[in-house]
Specification:
mainly beta, 9-stranded mixed β-sheet, 7-stranded mixed β-sheet, 6 helices, Immunoglobulin-like, Leucine-rich repeat, LRR (right-handed beta-alpha superhelix), about 10% helix, about 575 residues
Length: about 575
């Protein structure tokens, strides 16, 4: 056998440890020129956080206790003078969230930026002037400054931009004029500003416009606007988004625009709007209906129609728009099916109804539960498609009960013909798909006459007790004769109710078992019927639900006894 020798040079273990330590030191070593230092008076700490002398210096903290604060404009380090041009995050953290104080802040001209969270939760901050040199106010810079009532923007030449949520929850801010040089306002910048009754923009602005108290921001294409802020103090119950502002179309609803509004019940959106940014209608607790005018498939970003009240409706122009709301991989992130219903314009909202019956006792054996469905409204209906759902643990679509039929549908409205009944069982549900058309291809059905449509009967499984609910999950219609589900664009209201409780309870003696005592108890009421005064007591012995206690009831009980 030939020996294989590794001729590669070996690095001693100790040397490897040393090399690794050096690498770590190099990776974590500060860059040349990086420093953090207190000002001569000790009131501020400033830092050249980037480590490069050409990068401006930032105030990182205020160390004093005086509430009249003037930020420094320069600092000398090792004989070199550096300009201070920005305010860092949480710079007044020592004074933040302290009630009952008044903080006066002077920001020198020459500062160019306020970092994210710069004055966040500074409760004592009452007013501030933004120098004309500032070009960027970053995210949440004044968030939670609940006593801030005055913000003044000094004249300046350079463009100014906001990060997001700059004045979020500034609940005392009541008057604000945005400068002409502001190119964008971020999203959510005035969300929660519940006192902001007068939001305006300098008349020479080319990027922003306020109309009826709401702020609109020009898009990057330069020829359209997106709604940035809904009027912060409005208590109106209805609102129509304008189709144009300043002669240009409004094409989008920005992020958080209507979020958590507690007043709006109806919002109408013009056809020009095709983009709905994240959370734009999220949490609108009173919102009953949003009417979308677009015939194009809209862009729906995360959470835009979530947490709406039960039964709320999103009305759309056509099936293509409706399909944008159908389940997809990302569907649940922007639309909550359990809370809202998508409705094609011109049709009634689909209804979900439940009918419940209660089986008393614990000795219930196979029987039937019967449900009645009524049509409450219809408009130009030639075809109707119904979907019913039942709990598969309680009922069965095919269980055999001696002398009775399987699950079935019986048509009661002579204006319709029963075309199809399809039963399926999956995911713990027994579902019925029912297709109806006008009898003899007759005229379309219209009206609100609460027609008695169907009787549905289902066998009940052994031992079932408690509530057994039927749910109408869909009631769709079309104005033409068709079996094509995709053409069922309209909806009608169909309600379900319990027709009769045919669940047999053989435990007449009510001792949680079935034996000779049940027959004895039933015999006490032999030949009593629903017409007799003592029917209320005797009804429990009517196990076959034919409104009388007779020999058949005694036989049925006897057959359930296990000998």
């Amino acid at each position: 056998m030939t020996a294989i020798i590794d001729s590669r040079p070996r690095i001693p273990r100790l040397a490897m440890v040393f090399i690794a330590a050096v690498v770590v030191m190099l990776l974590n070593a500060p860059k040349a020129g990086a420093w953090s230092q207190s000002t001569d008076d000790g009131l501020f700490t400033v830092a050249n956080r980037s480590g490069y002398s050409s990068i401006p210096v930032t105030v990182t903290s205020y160390n004093g206790s005086d509430t009249n604060i003037t930020f420094p404009d320069k600092i000398t380090v090792s004989g070199t003078e550096y300009p201070i041009v920005s305010i860092g995050s949480n710079v007044l953290s020592k004074l933040a969230e302290v009630d009952g104080i008044t903080i006066n802040v002077t920001i020198p001209d020459g500062y160019t930026a306020l970092d994210g969270n710069a004055f966040k939760n500074c409760y004592g901050l009452k007013s501030v002037t933004i120098p004309g040199s500032v070009t960027k106010i970053n995210y949440n810079a004044f968030e939670g400054c609940k006593n801030l009532s005055s913000v003044t923007f000094a004249d300046g030449r350079a463009d100014l931009s906001f990060g997001n949520k700059v004045f979020l929850n500034c609940t005392s801010l009541n008057n604000l004029t945005l400068p002409a040089r502001l190119s964008n306002a971020g999203y959510g910048s005035f969300h929660g500003c519940t006192a902001l009754t007068n939001l305006t923009v300098d008349s020479s602005s080319t990027a922003l416009v306020v109309q009826d108290g709401s702020l609109y921001e020009k898009n990057s294409d330069g020829v359209s606007y997106t709604m940035n802020t809904y009027a912060p103090t409005s208590t109106a119950t209805s609102f129509t988004v304008p189709g144009t502002v300043n002669g240009l179309p409004v094409t989008g609803i920005g992020r958080m625009v209507f979020q958590n509004n507690a007043y709006l019940t109806n919002v109408t959106v013009p056809a020009s709007v095709v983009m709905f940014d994240s959370y734009c209608f999220n949490g609108c607790s009173a919102l009953a209906k949003v009417s979308l005018g677009t015939t194009e498939v809209p862009t729906l970003k995360s959470g835009c129609f979530t947490n709406l009240p039960s039964g709320s409706v999103i009305e759309v122009a056509n099936e293509n728009v409706k399909n944008a709301f159908e389940p997809t991989e990302s569907w649940i992130t922007y639309y909550t099916k359990d809370n809202t219903t998508v409705q094609v314009k011109g049709a009634s909202a689909p209804q979900t109804s439940s009918a419940e019956l209660t089986a008393k006792g614990t000795g219930v054996k196979d029987g039937y539960a019967y449900y009645k469905l009524t049509l409450d409204n219809a408009e130009n209906v030639k075809t109707m498609l119904l979907h019913l759902s039942f709990d598969a643990s309680k009922v069965s679509k095919d269980a055999q009960v001696e002398g009775k039929k399987d699950a079935y549908v019986e048509l009661n409205d002579d204006r319709f013909s029963l075309v199809t009944v399809k039963w399926t069982e999956a995911d713990g549900k027994v579902d019925a798909k029912i297709l109806l058309i006008p009898k003899d291809n007759g005229e379309a059905i219209s009206g609100t006459d609460a027609a008695n449509l169907l009787l549905v009967g289902l066998p009940v499984k052994n031992g079932v007790t408690g509530n057994i609910a039927m749910t109408v999950t869909a009631a769709q219609c079309a104005g033409i004769n068709t079996e094509d589900d995709s053409l069922m664009t309209g909806t009608v209201t169909v309600n379900g109710s319990l027709a009769s409780n045919r669940i047999a309870n053989y435990d007449v003696y009510e001792d949680s078992k079935i034996d000779i005592l049940d027959i004895t108890e039933a015999q006490r009421f032999y030949q009593v019927s629903s017409r007799d005064n003592d029917w209320a007591a005797a009804q429990k012995a009517d196990v076959n639900a034919d409104d009388k206690v007779d020999i058949q009831d005694l036989i049925d009980i006897f057959l359930q006894i296990e000998f």
